[in-house]
Design a protein that fits this description.
By secondary structure, the protein is α/β, with parallel strands linked by helices. The protein has 14 helices and twelve strands. The strands form two sheets. An eight-stranded mixed sheet has the order 1-8-7-6-5-2-3-4, with helices on both faces. A four-stranded antiparallel sheet has the order 9-10-12-11.
């Protein structure tokens, strides 16, 4: 049987990260290619208590269908959390999604026609890029500098792409680069979007992981014109397996995202929503966030110290949060060959071209993750990479 797939699907390729993650789960593999929260960061005891209480006191609420917009109490909890960051405006509404990545899927579905353009940081998160590609849109990459997008190139893209629908930005501890967009550039990106009449999708899954430096205001906090869709998530601070994220956007936009979600998955799992809402409100959420920051601060410093000592030829920018370190290989070393040799030596890393608008673009970088491997694996894994560079 010859299967004729749709044009949208036939040109999609499996996620490079997901393919490499197959190796990550194999015995003996050091998972620098992963992006999972640290095992010690999960509030397992609290989730067990909450789950038992929910199933004991309100089992039908947890197991029945729910409304597409999300559990009303959790939506209010999100509002309260984001009001502290001035990131909910009077014209905004909230929808609970199945992880933050669903916000990219729903936003593209609601806003883009085939052939429209989405402007992205380059490199950018492969999961979002594949979500965009599934709608047959054009991806226009803007080079990422140490403090965010190159503004001249961003404006050039806006001028040259009349069918641009939104700018996709991960302003805090960007995946994969670890770059944090400066306050000056956050303001400039907003003003350019306003001038050229395009929206911004601000993806912020890592903002609560900052372990050094002062927090910067979200681009959404600057949104006086209703042009920012903010994507947040509880995956990195509670559990990715619960699949609870959210979008904050003008009411008219949320209404369209809701219609799209109704035909996608009806609603986000209500049991997970109930767990998240209880954990945030009934437990010491601030103390839990502080614990997560301590864990990732320690593990990131361990990896950076190991890289500095054993792999000085690898160039990278120091990070202040997030889960990833983006490393440039020395000239003369083929990145794909290096990644293949690393896997053969039991260290899985992600080839940098996986995060570009086209995998055929030249790239000599790799992404390393420090949250998933143990401390011992971080040290031994860097030792192995050092051997490959010598």
């Amino acid at each position: 049987m010859n299967y004729n797939f749709s044009k949208k699907v036939s040109e999609l390729k499996p996620s490079v990260i997901r393919e490499i993650l197959k190796f990550t789960g194999m015995p003996g593999i050091i998972p620098f290619a992963a992006g999972n929260p640290a095992a010690e960061a999960f509030p397992t005891a609290a989730v067990e208590e909450i789950s038992a209480k929910i199933l004991r006191e309100r089992p039908i609420d947890a197991l029945q269908y729910s409304i597409t917009e999300g559990y009303p109490k959790l939506r209010e909890t999100v509002r309260n959390l984001m009001k502290k960051q001035d990131s909910v405006k009077d014209f905004d509404d909230v929808i609970i999604t199945s992880g933050a990545q669903q916000v990219m899927n729903l936003s593209t579905q609601a806003l883009c026609n085939e052939g429209d353009t989405i402007i992205c940081e380059s490199p950018s998160f492969i999961g979002s890029l594949n979500a965009f590609r599934s709608f047959n849109v054009k991806l226009r990459g803007v080079p990422l500098e140490s403090d965010g997008m190159n503004l001249e190139e961003l404006e050039r893209a806006l001028k040259e792409e009349p069918k641009a629908r939104f700018i996709y930005v991960i302003a805090n501890f960007q995946n994969p680069s670890g770059v944090t967009t400066s306050l000056e550039k956050r303001k400039a990106i907003y003003e350019l979007a306003k001038r050229y009449k395009v929206l911004i999708v601000e993806d912020n899954p890592y903002g609560e992981t900052r372990f050094e430096g002062e927090a910067l205001p979200n681009i959404k906090s600057m949104d006086t014109d209703g042009i920012v869709i903010y994507a947040g998530s509880f995956s990195k601070v509670i559990s990715p397996g619960l699949r609870v994220g959210y979008a904050i956007a003008p009411k008219e936009v949320i209404a369209k995202l809701t219609v799209c979600k109704q035909v996608s998955d009806v609603h986000t799992g209500i049991f997970g929503q109930l767990i998240v809402d209880s954990f945030v409100n009934d437990y010491d959420f601030d103390a839990h966030i502080a614990k997560i920051k301590e864990i990732y601060g320690r593990k990131s410093r361990l990896m950076m110290q190991a890289l500095d000592t054993k792999c000085p030829a690898l160039r990278y920018n120091k990070i202040q949060g997030g889960l990833f370190i983006w490393c440039d290989l020395p000239s003369g070393i083929n990145m794909l060959d290096f990644a293949k040799e690393a896997v053969e030596k039991s260290v899985a890393v992600v080839p940098g071209n996986a995060f570009l608008m086209s995998e055929n673009e030249p790239c000599n970088s790799i992404r390393l993750n420090f949250s998933t491997p143990s401390d011992e694996q971080i040290v031994s894994g860097v030792d192995i990479l050092s051997g490959l560079l010598s």
